[in-house]
Structure formats: C-alpha cells, structure tokens
Design goal:
The chain is an alpha/beta fold. 44% of the residues lie in helices and 16% in strands. The chain binds pyridoxal-5'-phosphate.
Length: 500
C-alpha cells in the first residue's frame, strides 16, 4: 500500500485514509505521495478510457487502499450528474493548441473537479478508520475554493465546514455565491486581510493549544484546501483526459509530448500536472503562469522564493497569493524527501520571508517547469484578442495562462509542441472584467454584466448564476485577524453540540 509522507518529518508515513482525513500532518507538513514514478501507467491502455474510467484508474493507483470497486462508486457519485458536460472537462482546439475547460461543475470553478469528489473520499476514509468524531473542515479561500467546498460538503454527514475569505479581493459574484450558501453544516466568514491571512490562520489552527484541546475524541480537523492530498489527486485526471482528446482528433500521436500552461496560485493544479508526468504522461514543459503577484515566476528563474513584496489585488483574485503551499511538496520530492531541509526552508520563509533552494533543486525545477507572468493590461488585451481571433471568451485567470503560452512560444519559435491552456473559471464569474475587455464597457452591477455576456459566450448562463442575485444573504459576518482563532474555537464547540 502506498504511503503518504509528511514533508516536515519523513519518518511520519500514513495511509491514504489518514492523509485524507487529517488534511495536514500534525507536524505542519504536507502529506506527499512518494515514488510515484514507480507506478507508471500505460498511455496506450488509457487511451480509450472516458473521464470516469480514467478517474477510477488514476485515483485508485494513488489511493490504493481503496478497492477499484469503491473508487468506481465514489467517482460515479462525484461525476455522475453534477457537470454540464458529459465528458466533464471539454477540450476546445484553438489553432494548433487547445484550451481545456475545467469549469463545467456546480459553481463555475475548476475547483469543482476536486471538490465534488473530496467529500466522498473523506467520508469513505472516515468509515474505513472507524472514527466517530465529527469532521470539521477549515477552508481558506481566495474566492473559488470557498464556494466549491461549501457546495461539496453541504449537508454531508459527520462534516462541518467553515470558510474564511478576504473581505476585499474576491469578485462580487464570488462573494455573493458564498454568502448565499444554504446547508445546516456551513459557515462563511469574511476576514479583514488578504488570502495569505486566511491561509495562515487555517494552518496555525492545527498548532493552536486551545484548538488542540477542543479536538478531543469528539471532533477532528480537516482541510478542503489543496494542502489536502485528496484535493490534488483528482486533478491529475484531466491532464490525461486532455491528452486522450488530442490523440482522438489526431492532433498528436501516442507518446508525443504536450506542454501545459497553468494559471497558478497555490501551486496545486500545476503540481497535479507534475504528478501526471510522473505517472507517465508525456508532458514537455509545465508553464507556470502568474499574474502581477509573480513570486513563482521569480522563483523558477532564480531559485529564490521571496514573499517580501507588495501584495497586488488583480482581476484574477484566485491567483493573488504570495505563499504557494504546494510548492513545499515539489521541493520535498526534488530534495530526495529531505524533510529537515524543507523544514529549514519553511522556517526561513516564516521568519525572513524568503529562502533559496540548493542547486540540484534549481536544476530539477528548470527541467520540468518554466514561469511567466502577465500584467493587468495584458490580461485585458488577451481576453480581447482571443475573442476577436477565435470567438472564445476567456476569464481573467485563463487569460493569464493563455498569455504565458504566447510568451513561451515567442521565446521558443522552433518549438512546435502542442500546448494546452488550462481554463479554470467560467467567464461569467468575472463578467465585469470580461465585458470591459470584449465590449469596451461594463455595467455597474454584475447581474447586468452576466446578462450582457450571454451575447458573447458560447455557453449559456447557468442557473446558479442567473438566480444568484435573487437569493437571500445568509452569511454576512466580518471579523478581524485577531478574532480568527476564536471563531474557529466557537465553530468546533458548535460541532460538538456545546453551547458557544
Ligand atoms: C484556485 C484557482 C487557480 C489557482 O490554482 P492553484 O491550484 O491554487 O494553483 C487558478 N484559477 C482559478 C479560477 C482558481 O480558482
């Protein structure tokens, strides 16, 4: 059976059930699947599989504590009826390249792909471990994870979910989506701060003495963020799916390399791409696309991770992140699972806001990845020109990745490798920016922007967007950073059924 090893203590190895249930290792490390390269899959054998069959094969290869039958059942629950496309993540050719549309799930975000399945993985793991505690899920969101997680966990037995989002930064539609969430086990709180404030709070909760004391035999903490390995593994699937689509329409031949350009924030999505490569998918470069908060672009170029810079709110808020959690998993792997080294890097990041990786790690990174960033004005121009040239409407996050692809191709004119751009959000979700780019004007409120955008998008406006502004606001609490841990403690007490 495969072990998941803590990036902060390599002697701490657990099975899939424990890794998924805990979310984060008690030592603060991230559970990482080791030696994936020993589990290579055959592209030839996968070629004919549809999305759900691919998901079953890939997920059960990594979470091999589940039987194939169990995985199949979980996959069916997640993807049976919840997506607007039968093939879950449709691929659209754009010239010789392609855009992979990952936003056909229940909230219009690519995070739905993982968050429709995580609750089922979690509940199944919980049962395997014979737990009788309530699972309390803490989630930090820069906008999209929150709603996708809330919908995924809403009214799921034995679970309670608390979401923190930054008061300033998320789009009006994202905020509205979260504030209108129903369900008896959901709680949403706005934080005066940025995403990193929310994420640090959630990570710190695991180490907080008061919280630890509350997590007795009655409640256990878990996470719906991509620090939970149960979030990452389902994302590997669509890399294979994209490859199958390119094979099916004759764009590539079996074994031919493909590049992927990935709009990156917390480094989860692109890490799933790297895992796909480890499992044998012929990926050339993983293009790490950032917005004006380009910590990762600089890191890939220099090997120095430096968060000491001004945080810039952009039109792609889900990528406004200065601390990319999942990079830790990649460094753990590239260091040969040297958890002491990783601990020292993360310590430096906490105390000095920066660290520099050793040369062998720099080399590995450059071998697999390259990084580009896109300025705000180029986001607008890209949305404009892709619509003009291809009649395809991109959301700002996808535009960042599309522009990164263009930059890569400009720098490598002789490289004819097909490139797939991952499209991570519905353009309707960021309708004001998209309208401004395509139509040259935007309306005051997002409802009108969405309506107007229906004239440009090939996809119809989903119900969950058209109804959004008629729903009552159920979650309007705003707190300061200082009140964060208290809010978590109250949430845990409530989950235990104690008076708050
Ligand atoms: C979360 C998100 C991203 C970034 O994904 P990571 O896995 O955090 O790197 C990009 N685009 C959108 C729309 C997102 O919601």
């Amino acid at each position: 059976m495969r072990k998941f090893v803590s990036s902060k203590d390599r002697t701490r190895a657990v099975n899939a059930f424990t890794a998924i249930t805990q979310g984060l290792s008690p030592d603060g490390g991230l559970y990482t699947p080791v030696n994936l390269k020993e589990s290579t899959l055959s592209i030839k054998e996968l070629e004919k599989l549809d999305y759900k069959q691919l998901a079953t094969t890939i997920i059960s290869t990594i979470f091999d504590d589940f039987t194939l039958e169990e995985t199949k059942e979980i996959v069916e629950k997640a993807y049976g009826h919840t997506f607007m496309a039968d093939d879950i993540t449709p691929l659209e050719k754009v010239g010789k390249d392609a855009v992979l549309k990952l936003y056909y799930g229940p909230t219009g975000a690519f995070k739905d792909v993982a968050l429709t399945i995580l609750p089922h993985l979690l509940v199944a793991s919980y049962k395997k471990l014979h737990l009788n505690q309530e699972i309390c899920i803490l989630t930090a969101t820069s906008g999209d994870t929150g709603k996708a997680a809330l919908e995924g966990f809403k009214d799921v037995e034995h679970t309670h979910i608390l979401v923190f989002y930054p008061e300033i930064g998320v789009s009006k539609t994202q905020k509205r989506q979260m504030q209108t969430t129903t369900g008896s086990n959901t709680k949403v709180v706005a934080m005066q701060g940025d995403f990193d404030t929310c994420q640090s709070l959630v990570k710190a909760a695991y180490q907080d003495p008061a919280v630890k004391e509350l997590c007795s035999d009655q409640v256990v903490l878990s996470s719906a963020n991509s620090i939970n390995i149960g979030r990452l593994v389902p994302q590997i699937v669509y890399y294979f799916k994209a490859y199958n689509d390119l094979l099916a329409d004759g764009t590539i031949t079996c074994g031919e390399q493909v590049h992927f350009s990935v709009p990156t924030g917390n480094f989860g999505d692109i890490l799933a791409g790297y895992y796909a490569k480890c499992l044998g998918l012929p990926i050339g470069k993983l293009i790490c696309a950032s917005n004006s908060n380009h910590v990762l672009t600089d890191f890939i170029a220099t090997g120095v991770y430096d968060r000491n810079r001004t945080f810039l709110p952009t039109t792609s808020p889900s990528m406004d992140i200065l601390v990319s959690s999942n990079l830790e998993r990649l460094l753990f792997e590239f260091s040969g699972y040297d958890s002491d080294l990783i601990k020292s890097y993360m310590q430096d990041l906490n105390t000095r806001g920066r660290y520099e990786v050793k040369d062998s790690i720099k080399k590995e990174i450059k071998h697999h990845f390259c990084g580009y960033y896109t300025k705000e004005e180029d986001v607008i121009k890209t949305i404009q020109s892709v619509y003009h040239d291809h009649h395809l409407v991109l959301d700002p996050h996808t535009a960042v990745a599309y522009h990164a692809k263009l930059q890569y191709q400009k720098e490598h004119p002789k490289d004819a490798t097909v490139c797939v751009v991952l499209s991570t959000a519905s353009p309707y979700k960021f309708s004001s920016t998209v309208m401004k780019s395509i139509a040259g004007k935007e309306f005051e409120n997002d409802r009108d922007n969405m309506e107007a955008l229906t004239g440009y998008c090939s996809e119809t406006l989903p119900d969950y967007f058209s109804n959004l502004y008629d729903l009552p606001l159920l979650h309007t609490e705003v707190i300061t950073k200082e009140l964060g841990m208290k809010t978590i403690a109250a949430f845990l007490s409530e989950a235990k059924g104690e008076p708050v």
